Amino acid sequence: MLIRPRKSYTKTTWSKHWLRKHPNLFKDTILTRPEQAWVSDITYIATKNGNAYLSLITDAYSRKIVGYNLSNDLRTEGVAQALRMAIRERQTTLPLIHHSNRGIQYCSEEYQSLLNHQNITPSMTDGYDCYQNALAERMNGILKDEFLLQTYQDQTQLDEVIRHSIQIYNSKRPHLKLGLKTPIFIHKKSLAELTTRDL
């Protein structure tokens, strides 16, 4: 509670584009298991040699960060790399929603093709309401305000710190919403409780 929140003024989302936007399916979803809905967002992190851009994909049920990528630009490849990581870690073939804002990276043909190939259903915020992606925004805040407490030299150094921070977050940081259990504990336990038929 004594950590002073940081304010972000660097724009990472351009949503006023002509690419197709998808309806918000996440707002009506009642979460009952992991790999039911993923939320995704991009945030900037300043280094002494300029900004880096972190793409995160979080399982909405367990709060586990399942995919991430640090890039030196806002091109689609960065968010696509985070998605590929999440897909590699996926353990079920149950229906899955991918929720994001309307940023051009998420609406791009490359990203949407990747979702379609994996039978993942896209969901996006309505209009420009950032609160409709509040969980993803919250994940950005946790990493930046609780783990990344200094300005690192460059992207290489930051990448290593982020990798270590996500490992700690997933395996050691308890959540009130999870009954003071860790994301990885809830993720593994809930997946184990799914029957063979469910999988």
Description:
The chain has about 200 residues and is an alpha/beta fold. It has one domain: Ribonuclease H-like superfamily/Ribonuclease H (Nucleotidyltransferase, domain 5, 2-Layer Sandwich), CATH 3.30.420. About 35% of the residues lie in helices and about 20% in strands. The chain has a 5-stranded mixed β-sheet, with helices on both faces. The longest helix has 18 residues, at about 155-170.
Write the layout of secondary structure elements.
Blueprint: E1 37-47, E2 50-59, E3 65-71, H1 76-89, E4 96-100, H2 104-107, H3 109-117, E5 120-124, H4 134-147, H5 155-172, H6 183-193
Parallel strand pairs: 1-4, 4-5
Antiparallel strand pairs: 1-2, 2-3
Summarize the structure.
This protein is an alpha/beta fold and 199 residues long. It has helices spanning 76-89, 104-107, 109-117, 134-147, 155-172, 183-193, and strands at residues 37-47, 50-59, 65-71, 96-100, 120-124.
- Determine the fraction of residues in helical runs and give it as a percent range: 25-40%
How many DSSP-defined strands? 5
CATH fold assignment: Nucleotidyltransferase, domain 5
Largest sheet: 5 strands, mixed
Strand arrangement, major sheet = 3-2-1-4-5
User: What is the number of domains?
Assistant: 1
